[in-house]
TrEMBL record:
This is Purine-cytosine permease. Residues 1-34 are annotated as: Disordered. Residues 1-10 have a biased composition (Basic and acidic residues). It comes from Penicillium angulare. GO terms for cellular component: fungal-type vacuole membrane; plasma membrane.
Amino acid sequence: MTPEDIEKAHGSTSLHSVSQSELESTPTKESHEAIFESKPRSRIIRWCQSFKNVEARGIERVPIEEREPVTSSTTLHMLLMWFSMTLATNNIIVGSMGTLVLGLSFKDAALCGVLGIFLGTAIVGYMSSWGPLSGNRTLIVTRYFMGYYPSKICCGLNIFTNLGYSMVNSVVGGQILSKVSGGHISVLLGIVVVALSSWAMAMFGMKIFQIYERFAWLPQLMVLCIMLGSAGPHFDFNVHTPSSQLELNAKRISFVSLCLSIALAWAPLAADYYVYYPPHVKRWKTFTVTMLGCLQAMSLTIVLGVGLGTVLASSPAYVAKYGSDPGGLLMTAYDSLGGFGKFCAVVNVFALIANNTPGTYSMGMNFQMLGGFFQRAPRAIFTTLSTVIYTGCAMGGRNSLYEVFKGFLPLIGYWVIIWFVIVVQEHALFRRMKGYDWTAWDDPQHLPMGVAAGTAFLIGWAGAILGMDQNYYAGVIARIASGSDLGLWIGAGFTAVAFPPLRVLELWFFKR
Protein backbone atom coordinates (compact mmCIF):
# COMPACT_ATOMS: atom_id res chain seq x y z
CA MET A 1 0.00 0.00 0.00
CA THR A 2 1.42 3.37 -0.99
CA PRO A 3 1.61 6.39 1.36
CA GLU A 4 -1.19 7.96 -0.70
CA ASP A 5 -3.41 4.92 -0.12
CA ILE A 6 -2.69 5.07 3.60
CA GLU A 7 -3.55 8.76 3.67
CA LYS A 8 -6.88 8.06 1.96
CA ALA A 9 -7.61 5.15 4.26
CA HIS A 10 -7.26 7.41 7.27
CA GLY A 11 -9.54 9.96 5.72
CA SER A 12 -12.59 7.93 4.88
CA THR A 13 -14.52 7.09 8.02
CA SER A 14 -16.37 9.21 10.57
CA LEU A 15 -15.45 9.43 14.20
CA HIS A 16 -17.89 7.36 16.22
CA SER A 17 -16.14 6.25 19.37
CA VAL A 18 -12.82 6.26 21.18
CA SER A 19 -11.53 3.31 19.15
CA GLN A 20 -9.81 2.64 15.88
CA SER A 21 -12.59 4.49 14.08
CA GLU A 22 -11.73 7.52 16.17
CA LEU A 23 -8.39 7.61 14.38
CA GLU A 24 -9.98 8.10 11.00
CA SER A 25 -11.38 11.14 9.21
CA THR A 26 -13.55 12.09 6.28
CA PRO A 27 -12.31 11.91 2.66
CA THR A 28 -9.22 14.02 2.16
CA LYS A 29 -8.91 16.88 -0.29
CA GLU A 30 -5.32 16.57 -1.44
CA SER A 31 -5.67 19.82 -3.34
CA HIS A 32 -5.53 21.76 -0.05
CA GLU A 33 -2.01 20.53 0.72
CA ALA A 34 -0.99 20.77 -2.92
CA ILE A 35 -1.89 24.46 -2.95
CA PHE A 36 0.08 25.07 0.21
CA GLU A 37 3.11 23.13 -0.99
CA SER A 38 3.09 25.03 -4.31
CA LYS A 39 3.78 28.32 -2.55
CA PRO A 40 7.38 29.43 -3.15
CA ARG A 41 9.67 28.72 -0.26
CA SER A 42 11.63 31.71 0.90
CA ARG A 43 15.40 32.00 0.91
CA ILE A 44 15.35 32.09 4.71
CA ILE A 45 13.56 28.74 4.87
CA ARG A 46 16.08 27.20 2.48
CA TRP A 47 18.86 28.71 4.61
CA CYS A 48 17.38 27.12 7.74
CA GLN A 49 17.18 23.78 5.98
CA SER A 50 20.88 23.98 5.14
CA PHE A 51 21.72 23.52 8.84
CA LYS A 52 21.89 19.89 9.84
CA ASN A 53 19.12 18.80 12.27
CA VAL A 54 17.42 22.23 12.34
CA GLU A 55 13.66 21.76 11.84
CA ALA A 56 12.48 24.03 9.03
CA ARG A 57 8.87 22.76 8.97
CA GLY A 58 6.34 25.37 9.97
CA ILE A 59 2.69 24.88 10.89
CA GLU A 60 1.73 22.78 7.88
CA ARG A 61 0.28 19.36 8.55
CA VAL A 62 2.72 16.45 8.82
CA PRO A 63 1.73 13.88 6.16
CA ILE A 64 1.41 10.26 7.25
CA GLU A 65 4.36 9.13 5.14
CA GLU A 66 6.67 11.52 7.03
CA ARG A 67 5.73 10.33 10.52
CA GLU A 68 7.81 8.10 12.75
CA PRO A 69 7.09 4.38 12.97
CA VAL A 70 5.70 3.08 16.25
CA THR A 71 8.07 0.80 18.16
CA SER A 72 7.90 -1.12 21.41
CA SER A 73 9.51 1.83 23.21
CA THR A 74 7.20 4.54 21.82
CA THR A 75 4.92 4.55 24.87
CA LEU A 76 7.87 4.82 27.24
CA HIS A 77 9.34 7.68 25.21
CA MET A 78 6.03 9.56 25.37
CA LEU A 79 5.83 9.07 29.13
CA LEU A 80 9.41 10.16 29.76
CA MET A 81 9.07 13.23 27.54
CA TRP A 82 6.13 14.56 29.56
CA PHE A 83 7.63 13.51 32.88
CA SER A 84 10.83 15.37 32.01
CA MET A 85 9.11 18.50 30.68
CA THR A 86 6.83 18.90 33.70
CA LEU A 87 9.35 17.94 36.40
CA ALA A 88 10.01 21.65 36.58
CA THR A 89 11.48 23.88 39.22
CA ASN A 90 8.82 26.54 38.65
CA ASN A 91 6.20 24.08 39.96
CA ILE A 92 8.10 24.08 43.26
CA ILE A 93 7.69 27.85 43.36
CA VAL A 94 3.93 27.55 42.78
CA GLY A 95 3.64 24.91 45.49
CA SER A 96 5.40 27.16 47.98
CA MET A 97 2.76 29.83 47.41
CA GLY A 98 0.15 27.64 49.10
CA THR A 99 1.91 27.78 52.47
CA LEU A 100 4.15 30.84 52.13
CA VAL A 101 1.79 33.30 50.39
CA LEU A 102 -1.74 32.00 51.07
CA GLY A 103 -0.93 30.72 54.57
CA LEU A 104 -2.47 27.25 54.19
CA SER A 105 -1.33 24.31 56.26
CA PHE A 106 0.81 21.61 54.65
CA LYS A 107 -2.13 19.18 54.46
CA ASP A 108 -4.54 21.69 52.94
CA ALA A 109 -2.04 22.96 50.39
CA ALA A 110 -0.85 19.47 49.37
CA LEU A 111 -4.38 18.09 48.87
CA CYS A 112 -5.60 21.16 47.00
CA GLY A 113 -2.48 21.25 44.85
CA VAL A 114 -2.70 17.59 43.80
CA LEU A 115 -6.43 17.95 43.06
CA GLY A 116 -5.79 20.92 40.79
CA ILE A 117 -2.95 19.06 39.03
CA PHE A 118 -5.11 15.98 38.51
CA LEU A 119 -7.87 17.96 36.80
CA GLY A 120 -5.43 19.93 34.68
CA THR A 121 -3.39 16.97 33.50
CA ALA A 122 -6.55 15.14 32.41
CA ILE A 123 -7.26 18.07 30.09
CA VAL A 124 -3.67 18.03 28.81
CA GLY A 125 -3.97 14.31 28.10
CA TYR A 126 -7.17 14.80 26.13
CA MET A 127 -5.75 17.58 23.98
CA SER A 128 -2.53 15.66 23.30
CA SER A 129 -4.50 12.86 21.65
CA TRP A 130 -5.36 15.10 18.69
CA GLY A 131 -1.71 15.23 17.55
CA PRO A 132 -1.29 11.73 16.07
CA LEU A 133 -4.89 11.72 14.84
CA SER A 134 -4.62 14.93 12.81
CA GLY A 135 -0.93 15.59 12.20
CA ASN A 136 -1.70 19.21 13.08
CA ARG A 137 -0.52 21.40 15.95
CA THR A 138 -2.93 21.97 18.82
CA LEU A 139 -4.10 25.45 17.85
CA ILE A 140 -4.39 24.40 14.21
CA VAL A 141 -6.76 21.66 15.37
CA THR A 142 -8.63 24.44 17.20
CA ARG A 143 -9.64 25.85 13.82
CA TYR A 144 -11.94 22.85 13.40
CA PHE A 145 -13.74 23.75 16.63
CA MET A 146 -13.65 27.56 16.74
CA GLY A 147 -13.24 28.52 13.11
CA TYR A 148 -10.29 29.97 11.21
CA TYR A 149 -10.39 33.52 12.54
CA PRO A 150 -11.52 33.12 16.19
CA SER A 151 -8.79 30.53 16.69
CA LYS A 152 -6.23 33.28 16.08
CA ILE A 153 -7.34 34.88 19.35
CA CYS A 154 -6.22 31.73 21.15
CA CYS A 155 -2.91 31.84 19.27
CA GLY A 156 -2.29 35.38 20.49
CA LEU A 157 -3.25 34.47 24.05
CA ASN A 158 -0.99 31.45 23.98
CA ILE A 159 1.93 33.59 22.85
CA PHE A 160 1.43 35.79 25.92
CA THR A 161 1.03 32.69 28.11
CA ASN A 162 4.35 31.22 27.00
CA LEU A 163 6.10 34.57 27.14
CA GLY A 164 5.04 34.81 30.78
CA TYR A 165 6.11 31.29 31.62
CA SER A 166 9.44 31.67 29.86
CA MET A 167 10.02 34.92 31.71
CA VAL A 168 9.38 33.19 35.05
CA ASN A 169 11.67 30.27 34.19
CA SER A 170 14.44 32.64 33.17
CA VAL A 171 14.17 34.70 36.36
CA VAL A 172 14.21 31.64 38.63
CA GLY A 173 17.19 30.22 36.74
CA GLY A 174 18.99 33.55 36.91
CA GLN A 175 18.41 33.84 40.66
CA ILE A 176 19.72 30.32 41.26
CA LEU A 177 22.89 30.90 39.24
CA SER A 178 23.47 34.19 41.04
CA LYS A 179 23.11 32.65 44.51
CA VAL A 180 25.20 29.59 43.62
CA SER A 181 28.03 31.82 42.39
CA GLY A 182 27.91 33.96 45.50
CA GLY A 183 26.90 36.97 43.45
CA HIS A 184 29.74 36.69 40.92
CA ILE A 185 27.12 35.93 38.25
CA SER A 186 24.45 38.61 38.28
CA VAL A 187 20.77 37.69 38.01
CA LEU A 188 20.71 39.49 34.65
CA LEU A 189 23.51 37.34 33.25
CA GLY A 190 21.86 34.21 34.62
CA ILE A 191 18.62 35.13 32.84
CA VAL A 192 20.51 35.46 29.56
CA VAL A 193 22.17 32.05 30.05
CA VAL A 194 18.82 30.29 30.60
CA ALA A 195 17.13 32.09 27.70
CA LEU A 196 19.92 31.40 25.21
CA SER A 197 20.10 27.72 26.19
CA SER A 198 16.34 27.35 25.67
CA TRP A 199 16.53 29.16 22.33
CA ALA A 200 19.33 26.94 21.04
CA MET A 201 17.43 23.75 21.79
CA ALA A 202 14.11 25.07 20.42
CA MET A 203 15.80 25.93 17.11
CA PHE A 204 16.51 22.25 16.40
CA GLY A 205 12.85 21.27 16.66
CA MET A 206 10.94 18.45 18.29
CA LYS A 207 12.94 15.42 17.13
CA ILE A 208 16.13 16.54 18.88
CA PHE A 209 14.18 17.86 21.85
CA GLN A 210 12.35 14.56 22.34
CA ILE A 211 15.66 12.71 22.48
CA TYR A 212 16.97 15.16 25.09
CA GLU A 213 13.84 14.80 27.23
CA ARG A 214 14.15 11.01 27.31
CA PHE A 215 17.24 11.37 29.50
CA ALA A 216 16.89 14.78 31.18
CA TRP A 217 14.43 13.50 33.79
CA LEU A 218 16.94 11.25 35.56
CA PRO A 219 19.33 13.90 36.99
CA GLN A 220 16.33 16.11 37.73
CA LEU A 221 14.60 13.37 39.73
CA MET A 222 17.81 12.54 41.60
CA VAL A 223 18.26 16.17 42.60
CA LEU A 224 14.66 16.44 43.78
CA CYS A 225 15.15 13.35 45.94
CA ILE A 226 18.28 14.96 47.41
CA MET A 227 16.30 18.14 48.00
CA LEU A 228 13.60 16.19 49.82
CA GLY A 229 16.15 14.36 51.96
CA SER A 230 17.91 17.61 52.87
CA ALA A 231 14.89 19.84 53.52
CA GLY A 232 12.26 17.26 54.50
CA PRO A 233 13.24 17.10 58.19
CA HIS A 234 12.67 20.88 58.41
CA PHE A 235 9.14 20.82 56.98
CA ASP A 236 6.69 22.32 59.48
CA PHE A 237 3.43 20.37 59.25
CA ASN A 238 1.69 22.60 61.78
CA VAL A 239 2.39 26.07 60.41
CA HIS A 240 -0.54 28.00 58.93
CA THR A 241 -2.11 31.43 59.07
CA PRO A 242 -5.16 31.53 61.39
CA SER A 243 -8.35 32.43 59.51
CA SER A 244 -12.08 31.91 59.63
CA GLN A 245 -13.63 28.85 57.98
CA LEU A 246 -15.01 31.04 55.19
CA GLU A 247 -11.60 32.57 54.47
CA LEU A 248 -9.95 29.15 54.67
CA ASN A 249 -12.33 27.71 52.07
CA ALA A 250 -11.67 30.69 49.81
CA LYS A 251 -7.91 30.09 50.04
CA ARG A 252 -8.36 26.40 49.30
CA ILE A 253 -10.39 27.10 46.16
CA SER A 254 -7.89 29.74 45.05
CA PHE A 255 -4.98 27.32 45.41
CA VAL A 256 -6.80 24.55 43.54
CA SER A 257 -7.41 27.06 40.74
CA LEU A 258 -3.78 28.18 40.81
CA CYS A 259 -2.42 24.64 40.48
CA LEU A 260 -5.02 23.78 37.87
CA SER A 261 -3.84 26.79 35.87
CA ILE A 262 -0.20 25.67 35.74
CA ALA A 263 -1.30 22.32 34.33
CA LEU A 264 -3.72 23.96 31.90
CA ALA A 265 -0.87 26.01 30.44
CA TRP A 266 0.31 22.82 28.70
CA ALA A 267 -3.05 22.08 27.04
CA PRO A 268 -2.71 24.49 24.06
CA LEU A 269 0.69 22.90 23.30
CA ALA A 270 -0.09 19.26 24.04
CA ALA A 271 -0.70 17.95 20.50
CA ASP A 272 2.33 19.82 19.11
CA TYR A 273 4.70 17.16 20.41
CA TYR A 274 2.85 14.22 18.83
CA VAL A 275 2.41 15.35 15.21
CA TYR A 276 5.23 13.04 14.11
CA TYR A 277 3.42 9.98 15.48
CA PRO A 278 1.14 8.00 13.13
CA PRO A 279 -2.67 8.19 13.45
CA HIS A 280 -3.09 4.55 14.45
CA VAL A 281 -1.64 5.32 17.91
CA LYS A 282 -4.61 4.70 20.20
CA ARG A 283 -6.19 7.85 21.62
CA TRP A 284 -6.75 6.29 25.03
CA LYS A 285 -3.07 5.35 25.18
CA THR A 286 -1.92 8.87 24.24
CA PHE A 287 -4.29 10.30 26.86
CA THR A 288 -3.22 7.92 29.61
CA VAL A 289 0.53 8.17 29.02
CA THR A 290 0.45 11.96 28.80
CA MET A 291 -1.67 12.36 31.90
CA LEU A 292 0.43 9.94 33.96
CA GLY A 293 3.69 11.59 32.94
CA CYS A 294 2.42 15.05 33.84
CA LEU A 295 0.55 14.00 36.99
CA GLN A 296 3.49 12.23 38.59
CA ALA A 297 6.01 14.97 37.85
CA MET A 298 3.83 17.93 38.73
CA SER A 299 2.40 16.37 41.91
CA LEU A 300 5.92 15.62 43.16
CA THR A 301 7.18 19.14 42.56
CA ILE A 302 4.04 20.84 43.89
CA VAL A 303 4.11 18.89 47.18
CA LEU A 304 7.83 19.52 47.53
CA GLY A 305 7.19 23.22 47.05
CA VAL A 306 4.43 23.14 49.67
CA GLY A 307 6.89 21.69 52.16
CA LEU A 308 9.63 24.20 51.35
CA GLY A 309 7.10 26.98 51.82
CA THR A 310 6.52 25.81 55.40
CA VAL A 311 10.28 26.00 56.06
CA LEU A 312 10.46 29.69 55.12
CA ALA A 313 7.10 30.46 56.76
CA SER A 314 8.30 29.12 60.12
CA SER A 315 12.04 29.94 60.00
CA PRO A 316 13.02 33.63 59.92
CA ALA A 317 16.67 32.54 60.00
CA TYR A 318 16.40 31.00 56.54
CA VAL A 319 14.68 34.11 55.22
CA ALA A 320 17.49 36.26 56.60
CA LYS A 321 20.14 33.99 55.09
CA TYR A 322 18.74 33.37 51.62
CA GLY A 323 15.87 35.82 51.21
CA SER A 324 12.27 34.91 50.40
CA ASP A 325 12.52 35.07 46.61
CA PRO A 326 12.21 31.83 44.56
CA GLY A 327 15.98 31.46 44.23
CA GLY A 328 16.33 31.72 48.00
CA LEU A 329 13.60 29.14 48.47
CA LEU A 330 15.55 26.57 46.48
CA MET A 331 18.86 27.35 48.17
CA THR A 332 17.14 26.78 51.52
CA ALA A 333 16.56 23.18 50.43
CA TYR A 334 20.31 22.63 50.02
CA ASP A 335 21.38 24.52 53.15
CA SER A 336 23.22 21.61 54.78
CA LEU A 337 24.91 20.26 51.62
CA GLY A 338 27.59 22.88 51.02
CA GLY A 339 29.23 22.75 47.60
CA PHE A 340 27.26 19.66 46.59
CA GLY A 341 24.07 21.60 47.25
CA LYS A 342 25.22 24.27 44.82
CA PHE A 343 25.84 21.60 42.21
CA CYS A 344 22.29 20.29 42.73
CA ALA A 345 20.95 23.82 42.31
CA VAL A 346 22.70 24.08 38.94
CA VAL A 347 20.96 20.84 37.87
CA ASN A 348 17.70 22.57 38.77
CA VAL A 349 18.61 25.21 36.20
CA PHE A 350 18.84 22.49 33.53
CA ALA A 351 15.35 21.40 34.59
CA LEU A 352 14.15 24.94 33.95
CA ILE A 353 15.68 24.86 30.48
CA ALA A 354 13.94 21.54 29.75
CA ASN A 355 10.66 23.13 30.86
CA ASN A 356 11.30 26.36 28.98
CA THR A 357 12.19 24.88 25.60
CA PRO A 358 8.72 23.53 24.62
CA GLY A 359 7.12 26.95 25.11
CA THR A 360 9.88 28.65 23.15
CA TYR A 361 9.37 26.14 20.34
CA SER A 362 5.58 26.48 20.27
CA MET A 363 5.63 30.28 20.36
CA GLY A 364 7.26 30.26 16.94
CA MET A 365 4.39 28.10 15.69
CA ASN A 366 1.78 30.33 17.30
CA PHE A 367 3.13 33.39 15.51
CA GLN A 368 2.86 31.55 12.19
CA MET A 369 -0.72 30.58 12.97
CA LEU A 370 -1.69 34.26 12.91
CA GLY A 371 -1.51 34.01 9.11
CA GLY A 372 -0.39 36.44 6.40
CA PHE A 373 3.20 37.59 6.78
CA PHE A 374 3.54 35.58 9.98
CA GLN A 375 2.75 32.34 8.17
CA ARG A 376 5.19 33.01 5.33
CA ALA A 377 8.11 33.78 7.64
CA PRO A 378 10.07 30.78 9.02
CA ARG A 379 9.60 29.60 12.60
CA ALA A 380 13.23 30.40 13.48
CA ILE A 381 12.57 34.14 13.24
CA PHE A 382 9.72 34.03 15.74
CA THR A 383 11.54 31.67 18.06
CA THR A 384 14.34 34.23 18.21
CA LEU A 385 11.95 37.18 18.58
CA SER A 386 10.09 35.45 21.43
CA THR A 387 13.36 34.78 23.22
CA VAL A 388 14.37 38.44 22.99
CA ILE A 389 10.97 39.59 24.32
CA TYR A 390 10.74 37.30 27.34
CA THR A 391 14.41 37.88 28.22
CA GLY A 392 13.76 41.62 28.37
CA CYS A 393 10.60 41.10 30.45
CA ALA A 394 12.50 38.78 32.82
CA MET A 395 15.14 41.43 33.40
CA GLY A 396 12.47 43.99 34.23
CA GLY A 397 10.39 41.75 36.53
CA ARG A 398 13.16 39.89 38.32
CA ASN A 399 12.42 41.44 41.72
CA SER A 400 8.67 40.72 41.92
CA LEU A 401 8.30 37.12 40.80
CA TYR A 402 5.76 35.94 43.37
CA GLU A 403 3.48 38.86 42.45
CA VAL A 404 3.88 38.01 38.76
CA PHE A 405 3.02 34.36 39.42
CA LYS A 406 -0.04 35.15 41.53
CA GLY A 407 -1.48 37.57 38.99
CA PHE A 408 -0.37 35.80 35.81
CA LEU A 409 -1.22 32.11 36.36
CA PRO A 410 -4.99 32.50 36.89
CA LEU A 411 -5.28 34.48 33.67
CA ILE A 412 -3.91 31.45 31.82
CA GLY A 413 -6.53 29.22 33.42
CA TYR A 414 -9.38 31.55 32.49
CA TRP A 415 -8.87 31.49 28.74
CA VAL A 416 -7.67 27.88 28.49
CA ILE A 417 -10.67 26.44 30.32
CA ILE A 418 -13.06 28.49 28.16
CA TRP A 419 -11.29 27.26 25.02
CA PHE A 420 -11.36 23.67 26.25
CA VAL A 421 -15.11 23.72 26.94
CA ILE A 422 -15.72 24.86 23.35
CA VAL A 423 -13.44 22.12 21.98
CA VAL A 424 -15.20 19.36 23.94
CA GLN A 425 -18.71 20.55 23.16
CA GLU A 426 -18.04 21.06 19.44
CA HIS A 427 -16.55 17.59 19.15
CA ALA A 428 -19.09 15.75 21.31
CA LEU A 429 -22.26 17.51 20.18
CA PHE A 430 -21.66 18.62 16.59
CA ARG A 431 -18.64 17.00 14.90
CA ARG A 432 -18.26 13.51 16.31
CA MET A 433 -20.45 11.84 13.69
CA LYS A 434 -19.25 13.96 10.76
CA GLY A 435 -15.50 13.46 11.07
CA TYR A 436 -12.74 15.83 10.00
CA ASP A 437 -10.88 16.60 6.81
CA TRP A 438 -7.46 17.24 8.35
CA THR A 439 -6.01 18.46 5.04
CA ALA A 440 -8.32 21.50 5.08
CA TRP A 441 -6.51 23.06 8.01
CA ASP A 442 -5.68 26.28 6.09
CA ASP A 443 -8.94 26.67 4.14
CA PRO A 444 -11.48 28.91 5.93
CA GLN A 445 -14.24 27.74 3.57
CA HIS A 446 -14.04 24.20 4.96
CA LEU A 447 -13.96 25.25 8.61
CA PRO A 448 -16.70 26.56 10.93
CA MET A 449 -17.61 30.22 10.64
CA GLY A 450 -16.64 30.72 14.28
CA VAL A 451 -19.39 33.18 15.18
CA ALA A 452 -20.77 30.91 17.89
CA ALA A 453 -17.35 30.03 19.30
CA GLY A 454 -16.18 33.64 19.29
CA THR A 455 -19.33 34.83 21.05
CA ALA A 456 -19.23 32.03 23.61
CA PHE A 457 -15.56 32.79 24.24
CA LEU A 458 -16.42 36.40 25.12
CA ILE A 459 -19.34 35.29 27.30
CA GLY A 460 -17.00 32.93 29.14
CA TRP A 461 -14.55 35.76 29.74
CA ALA A 462 -17.38 37.87 31.17
CA GLY A 463 -18.06 35.07 33.66
CA ALA A 464 -14.36 34.81 34.51
CA ILE A 465 -14.20 38.54 35.23
CA LEU A 466 -17.21 38.31 37.53
CA GLY A 467 -15.55 35.52 39.53
CA MET A 468 -11.89 36.54 39.50
CA ASP A 469 -10.09 37.74 42.63
CA GLN A 470 -6.72 39.35 41.99
CA ASN A 471 -4.76 42.20 43.50
CA TYR A 472 -5.70 44.43 40.59
CA TYR A 473 -9.40 43.48 40.40
CA ALA A 474 -12.03 41.51 42.29
CA GLY A 475 -15.28 40.54 40.56
CA VAL A 476 -18.72 40.84 42.08
CA ILE A 477 -19.12 37.11 42.67
CA ALA A 478 -15.61 36.81 44.13
CA ARG A 479 -16.36 39.55 46.65
CA ILE A 480 -19.55 37.76 47.71
CA ALA A 481 -17.54 34.54 48.11
CA SER A 482 -15.10 36.14 50.58
CA GLY A 483 -12.29 36.62 48.09
CA SER A 484 -12.31 33.16 46.54
CA ASP A 485 -11.01 33.10 42.96
CA LEU A 486 -13.92 31.51 41.09
CA GLY A 487 -13.12 32.99 37.69
CA LEU A 488 -11.98 29.71 36.19
CA TRP A 489 -15.09 27.81 37.23
CA ILE A 490 -17.63 30.50 36.38
CA GLY A 491 -15.98 31.16 33.03
CA ALA A 492 -16.29 27.46 32.17
CA GLY A 493 -19.93 27.43 33.27
CA PHE A 494 -20.91 30.49 31.24
CA THR A 495 -19.26 29.02 28.15
CA ALA A 496 -20.88 25.60 28.57
CA VAL A 497 -24.33 27.17 28.73
CA ALA A 498 -23.83 29.67 25.90
CA PHE A 499 -22.03 27.68 23.20
CA PRO A 500 -24.51 24.87 22.24
CA PRO A 501 -27.51 27.11 21.37
CA LEU A 502 -25.25 29.61 19.59
CA ARG A 503 -23.71 26.80 17.55
CA VAL A 504 -27.15 25.45 16.60
CA LEU A 505 -28.08 28.90 15.29
CA GLU A 506 -24.79 29.19 13.42
CA LEU A 507 -25.32 25.83 11.70
CA TRP A 508 -28.85 26.82 10.78
CA PHE A 509 -27.76 30.10 9.18
CA PHE A 510 -24.37 29.20 7.66
CA LYS A 511 -24.57 25.40 7.28
CA ARG A 512 -20.99 24.93 8.54
